[in-house]
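Quick one:
INPUT:
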């Protein structure tokens, strides 16, 4: 019986503390919009949403140069012998083109 007395619910209940009321500007009450509370970043103007004209040409240039370097390496058209460094440079150019393409607007 002593063991069960430890697990009995107490007859008194404790009330949960009240949540503080937020005040934003001249509003009162619990509702505060997401913009006023700072949870949402303001949108950028549409005028700033485009990339410069040279950006697209640079992407295509890097991708094309990377493919050309790799192809010319395997065709023995580059100075010196076939080298893994040419492959590395070609892959780096292709990676740079893809990296820039992900930020194109």
């Amino acid at each position: 019986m002593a063991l069960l007395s430890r697990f009995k619910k107490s007859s008194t209940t404790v009330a949960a503390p009240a949540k503080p009321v937020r005040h934003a500007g001249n509003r009162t009450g619990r509702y505060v919009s997401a913009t006023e509370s700072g949870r949402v970043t303001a949108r950028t103007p549409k005028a700033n949403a485009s990339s410069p004209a040279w950006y697209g040409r640079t992407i295509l240039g890097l991708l094309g140069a990377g493919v050309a370097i790799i192809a010319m390496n395997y065709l023995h058209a580059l100075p010196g012998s076939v080298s893994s460094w040419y492959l590395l440079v070609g892959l780096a150019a292709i990676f740079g083109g893809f990296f820039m393409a992900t930020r194109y607007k």
